[in-house]
Amino acid sequence: MNYWEFLIQYLPKMASGAVMTVSVMICALLLAVTISIIFGLMRITNSKPIQGVAFVYIEFFRGTSLLVQLYWIYYVLPLMGLTLSPFMSGVIALGLNFGAYGAEVVRGGIQAVPKAQWEAALALNFSSKQRIRRIIIPQTFTIILPPAANLTVELLKATALVALITVVDLMFVAKQLNATTWLSAQVFGTALLVYYAMARFALIPFLRWLEVLAARKVGKS
Amino acid sequence: MEWRWEFAIEILPRMLWATGNTLLAAGAGYAIAMVVGLILMFGQQTPYRVVNIVVRELVEFVRSTPLLVQLFFVFFVAPQFGVTLSAWTSAMLTIGLHFGTYLSEVYRGALEGVPKSQWEACRALNFSTVYTYRRVILPQAFPIALPGMGNYLVGIFKDTPLLATIGVAELMHTANALGAETYRYLEPYTMVGAIFLIISLPTALGLRRLEAAVARHQGKLNH
Predict the structure, then answer these.
(1) Three-state SS sequence of B75-133
(2) Interchain CB distance below 8 Å, B66 and A158
(3) Chain A residues within an 8 Å CB radius of B160
(4) What CATH number is attached to the domain comprising B115?
(5) What are the pLDDT digits (tens) for B145-167?
(6) Do the Cβ atoms of A70 and B196 come closer than 8 Å?
(7) CA B32 to chain centre
(8) Closest to B214 (Cα-Cα) out of B124, B104, B140, B117
């Protein structure tokens, strides 16, 4: 069987896996962004206990491995009476893990806005709501977008791990096809190409576009 | 299911033995990645444009595809070409290449972080290229590279559980085996998490201390 015949026969199956990969990614991304913002803000409040909680959360999820967290949520939580579907387990593990990394990005981004901007807004008699919405957040955006974009690409790659808890994503389909056809080079080679195409020609251009857009909004283009 | 301390203590020796393998895999993988990173960085700065572009695209490709898929690719594809690689060999090859691409970026960023004027000054002082690198450029590039290099050391360590999927007998693999033997998953998986935390947190802290120490040392040298 040459490679074209292989593609014609098996690409539709791999494409359905890729669709699952994208849905896992989008759901996990939404969860991760929410967690990043909440815990990133918690890290810079004045309250020590709140800061402490965020610190423990972030260091815990950054300090243990994603696969361990995934297995723990999928295999150990049911023993305690909480059974989640493979899809839910995957999304939650990815969201919690990347949320911890993202929280540090958010914290760094807010702290990187020059102090003078806060002071100037105060001097111009902006209300605290205006100050945050019109001055701080737009500038934070341009600062955090590049590292956040990196994390998003990492997230897309990390979704491959959900195959190990039986989510039928691209990696899972590849493993299945490998076991039935033994055309390992074609199967895993195609999977690598599909992941590459998703990152290089869809996700990364989109994220760059967002960066340019954000930069233009604050007059930094 | 309740946590049983006797069981946890009973499996501890096997878990610790596997921790040794995990550390070995991370250490050896990192050593390979550091060398691969150097090769990939210089591979993008050759006088031949075609070589530079090919290496650049290779780096982009490896960086934007999942380590897990690469691991399976190397492990399963090599036998098709008549080379049977052991799980360990495949693992070291894949980790070396995957993190080598990341480290090549760290190296490149660090070298670019040294001001151009340093090169010009060395030129003016008639230093040889080797001498310039050894005494002027690398000492200044090192502190810039250190945080990134440290991050990827911890990164490799945290990615070693993936090696269990191709049968490297590291921590995760042992935890899976213990679970299958005893039908108890709570203790093995929780202990894996705890061991990772116990190792990665102090390592991260130590790296931050090292960065601060190097920065201080550099400050003295520069004045």
Answers:
(1) HHHHHHCCCCCCHHHHHHHHHHHHHHHHHHHHHHHHHHHCCHHHHHHHHHCCCCHHHHH
(2) yes
(3) 65
(4) 1.10.3720.10
(5) 999 999 999 999 999 999 999 99
(6) no
(7) 8
(8) B140
Amino acid at A148: A
Number of domains in chain B: 1
pLDDT recorded at residue B221: 60
Give the closest of A72, A158, A199 to B189, CB-based. A72
A60, A67, A150, A164: best mutation site toward chain B, by most B Cβ within 10 Å? A67
Cα distance between residue A50 and residue A103, in whole Å: 14
Q: What is the pTM of this model?
A: 0.91
Contact A181, A187 (CB under 8 A): yes
User: Which ipTM score applies to this complex?
Assistant: 0.90
Q: How near does any CA of chain A get to the CA of B220, in Å?
A: 28
Which residue matches tokens 């921590």? B171
Could you tell me which of A133, A154, A138, A153 has the C-alpha nearest to residue A217? A138
- DSSP state, residue B45: S
B223 pLDDT higher than 80? no
Nearest CA in chain A to B162: A67
Structural domain that includes position B62: 5-222
Name the packing angle between helices A3-43 and A184-197 (round to 10°).
Answer: 50
Q: pLDDT tens-digit profile of A19-77?
A: 999 999 999 999 999 999 999 999 988 899 999 999 999 999 999 999 999 999 999 99
Tokens representing B7?
């069981």
For range A175-204, the mean pLDDT: 94
Q: Given CA atoms B61, B62, B64, B68 in this order, what sign does their dihedral have?
A: positive
Of B76, B172, B197, the CB nearest to A60: B197
Q: Which amino acid is at B203?
A: T
For residue A41, the domain's CATH number is 1.10.3720.10
> Which of A65, A79, A175, A186 to mutate: most B Cβ within 10 Å?
A65
Range of the domain at A12: 3-217
- The Cα A140–Cα A107 span in angstroms is 10
**Structure token pair of residue B87:** 């799980």
Question: In the A/B pair of chains, how many CB contacts fall below 8 A?
Answer: 109
Q: What is the pLDDT of residue B217?
A: 82
Q: How many domains is chain A partitioned into structurally?
A: 1
Exposure class string for A62-74: b at 16+ Cβ within 10 A, else e: bbbbbbbbbbbbb
Decide if B204 and A63 are in contact by the 8 Å CB cutoff. yes
